[in-house]
Amino acid sequence: MERDADSTTRLTHSGVLPTYYAEALILPGTGTGVVALFNSYHALAPYYAIVAGVAAIVQGRAPAARIPFAVIEVSLGCLTVLVLATRIRRLARSRSWAAGRRGVPAWRLLAGLLRLLVPAGLLVALPNVVATFTGRVYSRHQRVRPCRACTDCWVSRR
C-alpha cells in the first residue's frame, strides 16, 4: 500500500515469470482498478508507469509523467560506445599482447582462455540457481517460449 503526495491510497501488486509480466493497481478511494498483463518481460520496461498512465486516463485525467524511454536509450547507447571503444583499443594492442606471450607454455594460455567460459557456465546453471533460491521451478517451455508477436513474425517470414 502506498500514498501519493495528495494522500491518494494505492494498492499495487506485480508478478513476473521469465516470459510474462503482470501489474495490478487499485485506487480504493475512486473505485478504480487497472490490471495489465504483458506476454513478455524486460527489466528496463517501465510497466508501472504504463499502468499508472492507464489508471489516470480511466479517471479522466492526463497521465502524470512521460515514460522515460529516452533515458534508457541514451544509457544503453553510451554503454555500447564504451564497449566498442574498449574493444577497438584491445584490438589495436593485440600485436603487442601476442609478442609478450611468446614463449609462454600453451597450458597457461589455455587456462587463461578457459576463465572466459565461466559466464557461459553460470548461464547454463541459472535455472537451477533460481530454483534453489526462490523455490520456483520453470519448465523448459516456460524458459524458452518466445513472445507471441515474435513467433508470428518468425512464422510469417518462413
Protein model, in words:
- With 158 residues, the protein is α+β, with helices and mostly antiparallel strands.
- Helix content is 53%, strand content 16%.
- It has helices spanning 47-58, 69-92, 94-100, 106-114, 118-134, 140-144, 148-156, and strands spanning 2-3, 9-17, 20-27, 32-38.
- A four-stranded antiparallel sheet has the order 1-2-3-4, covered by helices on one side.
- Strand 1 (2-3) and strand 2 form a beta hairpin.
- The longest helix is centred in the middle third of the chain and has 24 residues, at 69-92.
- The protein is elongated, with a radius of gyration of 24 Å.
- The model is unreliable at 149-158 (pLDDT under 50).
Produce a short descriptive summary.
The protein is α+β, with helices and mostly antiparallel strands and 158 residues long. It is 53% helix and 16% strand. It has a 4-stranded antiparallel sheet, with helices on one face.
Explain the layout of strands and helices.
Blueprint: E1 2-3, E2 9-17, E3 20-27, E4 32-38, H1 47-58, H2 69-92, H3 94-100, H4 106-114, H5 118-134, H6 140-144, H7 148-156
Antiparallel strand pairs: 1-2, 2-3, 3-4
Measured by DSSP, the beta-strand proportion falls in 15-25%
The shape is elongated
N-to-C series of helices and strands: EEEEHHHHHHH
Mean pLDDT: 78
Tally of individual helices: 7
Please name the defining characteristics of this protein.
about 160 residues, alpha+beta, 7 helices, disordered C terminus
